[in-house]
Amino acid sequence: MTDLASRAAALDAEHSSTDRRSAFRIPDGVIYLDGNSLGALSVAAAETAADVVSRQWGEQLIRAWNESDWWGAPERVGDRIGSLVGAGPGQVVVTDSTSVNLFKAIVAASRMRPGRSTVLTDPDSFPTDVYIARSACELLGLTLELVPTPEAPARIAELGESLALAAYSQVDYRTGEQWDLPALTRAAHDVGALVCWDLCHSAGAMPVGLDEGGADLAVGCGYKYLSGGPGAPSFIYVRREHLAAFDNPLAGWQGHADPFGMSTDYDPAATITRARVGTAPLLSLLTLEAALTAYDGLSIEEVRARSLSLTGLFIEALDALGVDLPLATPREDARRGSQVSLRHPEAYAVVQALIARGVIGDFREADIVRLGFSPLYLSHADVVAAAEHLAAVLEGREYERDEFRARSTVT
Amino acid sequence: MTDLASRAAALDAEHSSTDRRSAFRIPDGVIYLDGNSLGALSVAAAETAADVVSRQWGEQLIRAWNESDWWGAPERVGDRIGSLVGAGPGQVVVTDSTSVNLFKAIVAASRMRPGRSTVLTDPDSFPTDVYIARSACELLGLTLELVPTPEAPARIAELGESLALAAYSQVDYRTGEQWDLPALTRAAHDVGALVCWDLCHSAGAMPVGLDEGGADLAVGCGYKYLSGGPGAPSFIYVRREHLAAFDNPLAGWQGHADPFGMSTDYDPAATITRARVGTAPLLSLLTLEAALTAYDGLSIEEVRARSLSLTGLFIEALDALGVDLPLATPREDARRGSQVSLRHPEAYAVVQALIARGVIGDFREADIVRLGFSPLYLSHADVVAAAEHLAAVLEGREYERDEFRARSTVT
């Protein structure tokens, strides 16, 4: 047994209480480092999807709205996600996509801060965040300023009372850098502005502490670390004290206080239900609910400890194996999400060569090899094996093969 | 055999080529007259849902975006729906909910008609249509006028060039009355305005003729007659000549011309793809795609002929059985969608009593017993049996029982 292999074995033993691999169906021969893009299928998700289709839809038909409480699912699943992101009950609902929820959050935030002219976001946010912020600002007559996260506190202070909202991501989707949610939130609050956090790359992998950190609004993804399935609906958090003022620009009937009263006037529910719009995709929503049972019995702090141990070991293994690619991800635990990104001029081909070896990660423009470490179903042994495969791809210059350089449409 | 039963048998024989009952899984003992609210499960839908979960998601994992062409699904399914609503390829995409799509359509339409101040819709539209139109108008600084559909052409002529958009439903969700799509469209075009049609209660049950009728924009539901499953995503139609001007206010990354280029600037796709926003709920979307195979080999005109035969026989049976409740639905074929609604002061309890007999319909405020006739899986024998059950409920005053009068939260 190599030194790395014994180190992995020791860490797997140490973290055995957080190993949920048996709850998931990972194909044989695959080391799946893309759970930050599409989380893996769990046994519970598969079983529930089948039950929703065959029994609830197929047999209960329309009665499933009551008999299987489809109607309450967006809030019920929202509360479960809330418990993973530090939000007390009644502040999170699952609905729509992240982009759509961000639009609601930005418009609603601006309405809570009338007379303020500016919204800030990071130019290196996942692009949809920038596009949606710009779209919302155009409709609202506001100015969108693109300010990188490290410079945001200073710019927030300069803007003062002209700032309505700072919309930032907790973890950078490419580099995996984790930003300081409470500090940036405080900076915005110091000038009376609001903050909306995008949790797509943090929810389910680390403590977020929305309530404790003072966050006003947040959105996040159901299909990355939460493993809810492809295109699982997104969640939106509205801090309790903002609920009454949350004016949803997508005022759909499912956010109404009395949705079956069929009134012509929109009277929003007093609760987080007001962030709902139309009918949620129930196959996807209820499959997400089932996937969340993988977290049962685990605290998010335990999940974080396992995540840091996995990413830490991966970096340690790269060092030990002499892989000298520049790390885009910080080495310090406190600044690292649950992924490790490396830079390589042929990053696309490196990722393809890894996939050919059964190590599935992804490529992000322009030069990022992005490897996500979904803590629930990866072992330290997987991590060491992945590092060894990467070392072999580089050592053998496998990325120079034509088959790996040829681009397909979706990466 | 009663006269009605032999009439049903004759009609079932006459329409046998459009009988798709065997493609669906209708529970034994159920006559399902709520397919206009939640279409029934088909064999293909169940099989595909299982395949998407276990093989595509579970085994292909992230590679399914290419290997199972998840990326192209919104347009691929859109084109299939397009073929059912009279839209040539490249004008329909499946994404989001109807409410969200209506928001996009209204904002985009107003941007195609700058300087015009007014949007019209029917006060008796399904409420979400009114709420969303009002929300969009508030953001845009436009005036929403609520004008019943029969009065719309006259009001449109009065408004003239101040009208930006008329947003109407082809079939009234409560009464099942079908409106004249080409005529109202012409009235709007006569003053240079646009029309957006809500097809929730027509798509899949009758010819819509979007291209032929001159419609500019349309939205519709995937889970009613199309039987895509609970909360299946909605579709949006943008007439080809408007695509270049369709400015989506929900400018998400999946509508970008180069979504993986990760540019900070939003450059919308030249095609209907620009109406996409975030990641679609793929379990729901691909299940919808499978459900649409029930239409394979059928023209929508044949489906309509079967639908009219079913609803016509139901009305005939009510007459023959002496059921004298007021019809909310027109008797004339050309003015009737694929449902029959009756008024009764205890409509809620009547519906519950029918459900107890295995005839599933629904109640709509304030006094509507709404019975939908999904043409693909209902027979004329079902229709006669349903009419006989209704006659028995009324004759026996079953609706007076406490168990049927007690309201549950969701109807």
Work out the largest interface and the residue count of each chain. Answer: A-B, 88 and 88 residues
- The CA-CA distance between the termini of chain A, in Å, is 35 Å
Q: SSE order of chain A, as H and E?
A: HEHHHEHEHEHEHEHEEHHEHEEEHH
Describe the global form of chain A.
globular
Total number of helices of chain A: 14
CATH class wording of the largest domain in chain A: Alpha Beta
Quaternary organization: homodimer
The CATH topology of the largest domain in chain A is given as Aspartate Aminotransferase, domain 2
Catalytic activity (chains A, B): L-kynurenine + H2O = anthranilate + L-alanine + H(+); 3-hydroxy-L-kynurenine + H2O = 3-hydroxyanthranilate + L-alanine + H(+)
Subunit structure (chains A, B): Homodimer.
Function (chains A, B): Catalyzes the cleavage of L-kynurenine (L-Kyn) and L-3-hydroxykynurenine (L-3OHKyn) into anthranilic acid (AA) and 3-hydroxyanthranilic acid (3-OHAA), respectively.
Cofactor (chains A, B): pyridoxal 5'-phosphate
Describe this structure in words.
Two copies of one chain form a homodimer. The two termini of chain A are 35 Å apart. Chain A folds into two domains: 122 residues, Aspartate Aminotransferase, domain 1 (Alpha-Beta Complex), CATH 3.90.1150.10; 249 residues, Type I PLP-dependent aspartate aminotransferase-like (Major domain) (Aspartate Aminotransferase, domain 2, 3-Layer(aba) Sandwich), CATH 3.40.640. In chain A, the strands form three sheets. A seven-stranded mixed beta sheet of chain A has the order 2-8-7-6-5-3-4, sandwiched between helices. In chain A, strands 9-12-11 form a three-stranded antiparallel beta sheet, with helices on one face. The first copy, chain A, has a two-stranded parallel ribbon with strand order 1-10. Chain A is α/β, with parallel strands linked by helices. In chain A, strand 6, helix 9 and strand 7 form a beta-alpha-beta unit. Helices cover 38% and strands 12% of the residues of chain A. Chain A contains 14 helices and twelve strands. At the A-B interface, helix 2, helix 3, helix 5, helix 6 and helix 10 of A face helix 2, helix 3, helix 5, helix 6 and helix 10 of B.
